[in-house]
Amino acid sequence: MTTLLRVFRFAFQNIMRNFWLSLITVSMMMFTLLSVNVLVALNLVADRAIAYVQDKVEVSVYFDSDVPEPRVVDAAGFLRGLEQVRDVSVITPDEALERFKERHARDETVLRSLEEIGKNPFGPTLVVKARHPGDFPFILEALDHPQFANDIRDKDFTDYQGVIDRIRETSDRARAFGIGLSVVFLMIAMLVVFNTVRMGIIIHREEISIMKLVGASSAFVRAPFLIEAILLSLIASALAVLVVVPLVALIDPGIGAFFDGASTIDLLGYYQVNGVALFLAQFVVLAGVSMLATGFAMRKYLRV
Amino acid sequence: MIELHNVSKVYPPNVVGLRDVSLHVKPGEFVSIVGQSGTGKTTLAKMLFAEERPTHGRVTIGGWDITAIRDRDVPLLRRQIGVVFQDFKLLPRKTVFENVAFALEVSGAPSRRIKEVVPQVLKIVNLHEKGRRYPGQLSGGEQQRVVIARSLVHRPKILVADEPTGNLDLVNTQEIVDLLKTINQFGTTVVLVTHNRDVVNALKKRVITLSGGEVSSDEEEGRYKV
Ligand SMILES: Nc1ncnc2c1ncn2[C@@H]1O[C@H](COP(=O)(O)OP(=O)(O)O)[C@@H](O)[C@H]1O
Ligand SMILES: [Mg+2]
Fold first, then answer.
1. Which domain holds residue A85?
2. Assembly ipTM
3. What is the pLDDT of residue A262?
4. A209–B75: do the CB atoms touch at under 8 Å?
5. Do both A10 and A80 map to the same domain?
């Protein structure tokens, strides 16, 4: 116990005597953690954005305008019975017209030709959502069943695959950049740790030689440097929390607004639920890698 | 207490530090080791606390063969041997008390023992009233006495001193030698490496003379002859 306290005291003295180097070390560690958190946030936003868009993928099944409603309800029931179907909603001809107008609100030609027709050209419509985008071919095929095929005028597969691909592409590129940046920062941080320990050993070489001379165990000589690595990692992690959490709180509404509803991405909520584990994991990894760098520095410069 | 059997030390690539040295120091003895510069005195002294390992031969301390001592056993050895060496100075930013306490702290002694032992050893070297001073505020002789106090904290059976009076004037030199004699009278085996003719001649103790890494003379009540 006394020994442990002494080791901590020596570690703390190392940090204070080497103040500027410790500061640089903590800064580099913090940059590493910040870029890791940007990466985490980016992943989350991309994943949830893709999920959001995937959720919008649907097949519209347009029935002939003279198909009586029970037949449409039948078809809806059949589709609901399929394992691959997540949700089926029935749209009446009036609603269908509204939807169409909305979707083509900016397309003058379409709207004008709609007016020229004079009456509602739409029949009832079923909007089918699949569990997975890959299930759509199966669903479309199922509707080719003669029982329904005659009533169905058209099937329209609103393909968001392009959008999803673009999100994927962008986020993959951003992710690669983020990983690269994190790795670079981590490497710089480790070089800085290595150098800090090296300096610490040089600054304390008289103490260390005396320690060895009077019978300090090698573990006792080394422990302060390892504790120092842990303490610096801890400080960097705490600072990262202090920067990341307010930042997330600040940008969360903006991201929410970008998609249509704060609950879609909910970065803040993610950090509220997983933040502790996330930062703890970051600290553990950072401390582990720092101790490794410390170990290398000691092996090179500390002959105990 | 100390036994060397045909000990040789060759520093890489081929500098001879010691050549086939055999000697036996009995418990409680006071031995001076003299010789010209570069004859292996420091090398011999370092063998005794495993700072250097012999290239050939065997070193035994208190019945413990330390020829091939494992690294993790070295601290145990050093807690039984007091060392006064010019390379191991005082820490300028610690007080006298802290410098002495440091030796106990880092070898895991409980605080209670530190509070008890440090004043004791400072008293032995007659510096118990200067515990709060910094090394810079002491004379050379006083500083060397603090170093000796520090070497005593583990109540060593052997004290190895390499040129402890090297930078000191006559009066301070005499003080240090008297101190070593006192420590020897307490029962500690003392190995003193020195250049100082007058010190050796006044001691009237055993003198081992090295030349070219070899023992050229070993006399019970010797004189300085280099
Ligand atoms: N670490 C070392 N590496 C290489 N040569 C050394 C080393 N230490 C001492 N020597 C050489 O060994 C010989 C004995 O040195 P040393 O024991 O210091 O002599 P002394 O203390 O009698 O002056 C000298 O020639 C010295 O140059
Ligand atoms: Mg010498």
1. 58-158
2. 0.86
3. 46
4. no
5. no
